[in-house]
Amino acid sequence: MKYVSTRGQTDPVSFREAVAIGLAPDGGLFLPETLPDISPRLPGWRNLSYTELCAEFLGLFATDVPPEVLQQLIHRSYGAFTHPEIAPLRKIDDRLYVLELFHGPTLAFKDFALQFLGNLYGWECEQTGRTINVLGATSGDTGAAAIHGLLGKPKAASFILYPEGRVSPLQERQMTCTGAANVHAIAIDGSFDDAQRVLKDIFANKTFATQHRLSAVNSINIARVLAQSVYYLHAWLRLPEAERGNVEFVVPTGNFGNVFAGWLLQQMGVPVMGYKVATNRNDILHRLFTTAEYRSGEVHPSLAPSMDIQVASNFERFLYYALDENPTRVNNVMAQIKATGAYRFDLLNRSLFSSSSASDDEITSLIRRVYERYRYIVDPHTACAFKDINPQRISIVLATAHPAKFPAAIRDAIGQEPTSPVLEVLKTRPVVKHRLPAEAEAIKAFIAQRAI
Ligand SMILES: Cc1ncc(COP(=O)(O)O)c(C=O)c1O
Ligand SMILES: N[C@@H](CCOP(=O)(O)O)C(=O)O
Known about the structure:
- By secondary structure, this protein is of the alpha/beta class.
- The chain has a domain at 79-105 and 225-423: Rossmann fold, CATH 3.40.50.
- The protein has helices at residues 15-21, 42-45, 50-59, 67-79, 110-128, 141-150, 169-176, 192-204, 206-211, 222-238, 257-267, 284-291, 315-322, 327-340, 360-374, 380-384, 407-414, 421-424, 440-450, and strands spanning 2-5, 13-14, 30-32, 89-93, 96-100, 132-137, 156-163, 183-188, 214-216, 247-252, 274-279, 293-295, 342-344, 353-357, 394-399, 434-436.
- The protein has a six-stranded mixed beta sheet. A five-stranded parallel beta sheet has the order 9-6-7-8-16, with helices on both faces.
- Strand 6 (132-137), helix 6 (141-150) and strand 7 (156-163) form a beta-alpha-beta unit.
- Helix 3 crosses helix 10 and helix 5 crosses helix 10 (222-238).
- It is globular and about 55 Å long.
- The model has no long low-confidence stretch (mean pLDDT 96).
- It binds pyridoxal-5'-phosphate and the ligand N[C@@H](CCOP(=O)(O)O)C(=O)O.
- The ligand N[C@@H](CCOP(=O)(O)O)C(=O)O binds next to helix 6.
């Protein structure tokens, strides 16, 4: 399988190359040259365990990784999860399921792809004898999961940019209390969008990126997206046969990576009826799906900080398919968005996508309502997904983080603070972070001194 750039100015590359580079040199995002039709395989995949399904699915895309290596990497990656089902699907009401994605080492859905990606990087370094420097931007969870995916890998260093004061205190501790010399947590002034912009500027300097063997760990990396598709597929296959034809996934959304991973499955022949994009008050995607206009705005801090995003990176991948896989049209639209901050998007399939946006007050009352009704505690991101659930569908809400990561918001809603031993141990460890301006030159100088 070859991978092409959404902007069409990069020669097709293999899976391993696409993963190693992350962002295409022309500034676009990699996508499989063709999407396989997986519908004939679905009956045979029904009873597979999570790791078996993962190996089958990723095997269709990672065609230059030997199958036995892929299996080992997958087993290593999900061996660190604490729930035997890895991604348990919990029925909490008639027609309502929660897909728990927080049983990995950092208690967020990011672990699914970043444990795998960390092991893939480790294997790649062993194969090539080279080191790798991983660069990421985070609004809290990607950074923690990327760092933990790479812990103990001597040939990899991580440089993670996050907005100072805009991630939860425990998310910050997950990134800054590892004690590892090859982990560099960089707190910048500004928002996650500023961090993501700086990161893209750094990758745009090809000489610098090549010289320091930089790789992108955000969901701009295609391995992230594909590894996340697996839990949608696993959940869909777990449902009773009678329910499978009427499913809507409800996805707390920021950078559009997670919901895009789910949507890809539909493009590959899995008959999913709908995707609901659930945002917090940073509602660019909600406005897009209700008005067809993509218009970026200012980022506002919220109770669901990991979704405080107004420039949704993976939207470009979605655009590529909506524009008939025509890179010239993608380039034009991206140029227009860059120049004017907006684009009128008349091609949206609004029968497949729906959306909602929850204010902070609504997040608090949703946490309370879910607890009172189901005795189930959801984190503030997952809470957004409980707004306006469609009663006509079988809804699968993606629970993207463990509530213990956001104790203050939960206490305010239901008067109790969930805890997790994984997080408790971090509270007494020293914090090591670097404060830098949100400027590519300053970050590059920092990386140049510490890259391995
Ligand atoms: C807990 C949580 N929920 C939801 C999201 C949004 O996911 P995405 O950016 O893939 O849309 C994030 C951040 O990515 C997150 O950390
Ligand atoms: N919400 C994310 C932001 C980065 O998203 P990614 O999926 O593109 O890596 C975070 O928690 O950091």
